[in-house]
Amino acid sequence: MDIHKKFFSKIGFNYLILGIITLIFQIIILNIINLTNPQYLTDINIISIVSTICNYILPFPIFYWLMKNISSTKLEKTGIGIKTFILYLGITITLMWIGNLIGLTITSLLSSTMQSDITNPVQELINNAGIWFNIIIISLLAPIFEEILFRKLLIDRTIKYGAKVSIILSAVIFALFHGNLNQFFYALLMGGFFAYVYIKTGRIIYTMILHGIINLMGSVVSLFVANSVNNLMSGFNSLDFAILIIYTLILLLFLIIGIYGLTKLEKARFNGQKTEIALENPFKTMFINYGMICFTAFYIIMMIRQTLG
């Protein structure tokens, strides 16, 4: 195995370790709860908090130490104006909808074939958890940790191979790490775009904000809109009608902005980011190595298990 394959293999094993230790922490903590206060296992908010602690807070120092041992490159920092940020937000929303449509289509076809529903565990969590959980965990903590884990720590170490390599790798790892088919496609598209934004600006705060807004829309805002739709089905209400119309108009506006923005991305240039190491066969070097094969296999098995219930 050449030096570049070894590099990406190490990256793959690091993310595999991250996935494994999150499961280990979950098993340990849930068993402790079961032995001490088993009634807490029926509380969705407590289970969700435990999941957050195990997925982000506890594994983070270990993963940071693993990645710190790999040399990194500082990205050139560039600010963006409000117009560019709105354009980026429109693109993010558009990619989310495209990814959702692909995911829903595929899971619907699979559900029909298997004659059983394929559930979205995150959507079930959002629907059953309290609003403050959705705001603090889904819309604040998750975007902060995920952008550090899957953008900053990864891209700072792979950017020497070029922007395209970093974007593709970040997108694939981020999508697989979600561990379920429902989220895979929009995580893939948005993960790639967030990687683009981070490389373009060198500022992880922009992707954190974009990620947070999308999660807020998918959790808190969507619940309010769904509630208004349910109320309108029972009878006309001017407030619920206004909420639905305003949401629809804003969404359409951002979709138009997003489609326009996507047509301009092919002309994008990465200021100050030069490819230091050009790979002869980027895909083979990135993914056909022991670490990435093990990481990919691990999460494909997770997806299959989740899909089959």
Any overview of this molecule?
The protein has 309 residues and is mainly alpha-helical. It is 80% helix and 0% strand. It has twelve helices and no strands. The protein has helices spanning 3-36, 44-57, 59-68, 82-114, 121-128, 131-158, 163-177, 181-201, 204-234, 238-264, 282-287, 290-308. The longest helix is centred in the first third of the chain and has 34 residues, at 3-36.
Summarize the structure.
With 309 residues, the chain is mainly α. The protein contains 12 helices and no strands.
Summarize the main sheet.
none
Task: Give the terminus-to-terminus CA distance.
Answer: 38 Å
Give the overall form. Answer: globular
Helix content: over 70%
Regions with pLDDT < 50 over 5+ consecutive residues?
none
Order of helices and strands: HHHHHHHHHHHH
Classify the secondary structure makeup into a structural class: mainly alpha
Percent of sequence in beta strands? under 5%
- Rg on CA atoms, Å: 20 Å
Mean pLDDT: 89
Number of helices: 12
